[in-house]
Amino acid sequence: MEEKQRGAVLGKYEVGKLVGCGAFAKVYRGRDTETGQSVAIKVVSKQRLNKGGLNGAHVKREIAIMHRLRHPYIVRLSEVLATKSKIFFVMEFAKGGELFAKVSKGRFSEDLSRRYFHQLISAVGYCHSRGVFHRDLKPENLLLDDKLDLKISDFGLSALADQIRPDGLLHTLCGTPAYVAPEVLAKKGYDGAKIDVWSCGVILFVLNAGYLPFNDHNLMVMYRKIYKGEFRIPKWTSPDLRRLLARLLDTNPLSRITIEDIIRDPWFRQGYDDRMSKFHLEDSDMKLPANELRMNAFHIISGSPGFNLSGLFSGKFDRVERFVSGWTAASVLEKLEEMAAAENLTVACKEAWGMKIQGEGGSFAMVVEINQLTDELVMIEVRQRQRAGGDIWSDTLRPFLVEIVLKPDETVAGLQTTHYQEGASSLRDVNTTTT
């Protein structure tokens, strides 16, 4: 982050030193100016994403994934902030740093390796139960908190169950070379849960041995070793751990051990608390029906031209505007329906959280979508076009929406009135969402 920007993020967080850097993002240590609590701030550059061939859907997926994961061994996302050029992930700060830094100083004892493997499997099993596959598990993505407990981070390459193709497999090539499963290299599709188990096996090997099972300065030679499963378990490894590692690093995904079988394994069972595999979801963590979803950061971010995440509507519209109001969705739609009838417009379709209004012969078209921001506020998004005769939008419909919009002195919980017109340079206001 440029030096002049390092003072604070949107007045809410003080930004400190750089603690991590990737291809599309940088991670800083920060401090909540209200509570004084330490946080991690991941800064994603939209420009770098676009140059790297990634689009808004990538960020949208990462936000959606982190929002749905609430587990003691997974870094928690607390808030997402957005400006025209950057997206800020505000996350739990892991004071203990990377697990990689610890194991790079020397291998762990079997007992310590088992302790971290317990936590890793607990978190990975939870992710899979929520339809999330990490796809880039490695010690660099495993952080430690102030109690030196594990925290899985970096879900940027993760996949959701809805990305599985009709053949029942995922097909995107991703991951870190030394930790990637052989079936990914085969490029014929793979089971997301199975490749995460393979990566967990590589991590356990590293914790116990202090070095990688598959490693070579020549990448193709290393890939051949992975594909053939050529590795040597160090002599100090106990028989039970040897057997588990062989099952984790089985090159055949069909016979590779599952999370359920790992939990029943004799070596793994030592000191394991079964409550670690039985985390119940909080009510607030349950997925809501689409028409009850609160306005999330990626919906607001989608309003930024050149970084559209939504793709919600087809067809070209002359104007796109958004209004924040204290009216209920039902009241807004009812009033718009009355006004449409007065202007001889037809309500083509109407649902609880949106409607489409049309003029005769396609002379006018308007789509209205309403999202709940808070218990008191809604955001009304209107997309419309007019091809002939008069200006129903400017003369009739827009004045009504302007009249019901939240006034500046009525701002609630830091949310400000947002107007966005397609083709404008940016969202005029910075928006935040707490997850």
From TrEMBL:
<dbReference type="InterPro" id="IPR008271">
    <property type="entry name" value="Ser/Thr_kinase_AS"/>
</dbReference>
<dbReference type="GO" id="GO:0005524">
    <property type="term" value="F:ATP binding"/>
</dbReference>
<dbReference type="GO" id="GO:0007165">
    <property type="term" value="P:signal transduction"/>
</dbReference>
<dbReference type="Pfam" id="PF00069">
    <property type="entry name" value="Pkinase"/>
</dbReference>
<feature type="domain" description="Protein kinase">
    <location>
        <begin position="13"/>
        <end position="268"/>
    </location>
</feature>
<keyword id="KW-0464">Manganese</keyword>
<dbReference type="GO" id="GO:0004674">
    <property type="term" value="F:protein serine/threonine kinase activity"/>
</dbReference>
<dbReference type="InterPro" id="IPR004041">
    <property type="entry name" value="NAF_dom"/>
</dbReference>
<feature type="binding site">
    <location>
        <position position="42"/>
    </location>
    <ligand>
        <name>ATP</name>
    </ligand>
</feature>
<dbReference type="InterPro" id="IPR000719">
    <property type="entry name" value="Prot_kinase_dom"/>
</dbReference>
<comment type="similarity">
    <text>Belongs to the protein kinase superfamily. CAMK Ser/Thr protein kinase family. SNF1 subfamily.</text>
</comment>
<protein>
    <recommendedName>
        <fullName>non-specific serine/threonine protein kinase</fullName>
        <ecNumber>2.7.11.1</ecNumber>
    </recommendedName>
</protein>
<keyword id="KW-0723">Serine/threonine-protein kinase</keyword>
<feature type="domain" description="NAF">
    <location>
        <begin position="290"/>
        <end position="314"/>
    </location>
</feature>
<dbReference type="InterPro" id="IPR018451">
    <property type="entry name" value="NAF/FISL_domain"/>
</dbReference>
<dbReference type="Pfam" id="PF03822">
    <property type="entry name" value="NAF"/>
</dbReference>
<keyword id="KW-0808">Transferase</keyword>
<keyword id="KW-0067">ATP-binding</keyword>
<dbReference type="InterPro" id="IPR011009">
    <property type="entry name" value="Kinase-like_dom_sf"/>
</dbReference>
<dbReference type="InterPro" id="IPR017441">
    <property type="entry name" value="Protein_kinase_ATP_BS"/>
</dbReference>
<comment type="function">
    <text>CIPK serine-threonine protein kinases interact with CBL proteins. Binding of a CBL protein to the regulatory NAF domain of CIPK protein lead to the activation of the kinase in a calcium-dependent manner.</text>
</comment>
<keyword id="KW-0547">Nucleotide-binding</keyword>
<keyword id="KW-0418">Kinase</keyword>
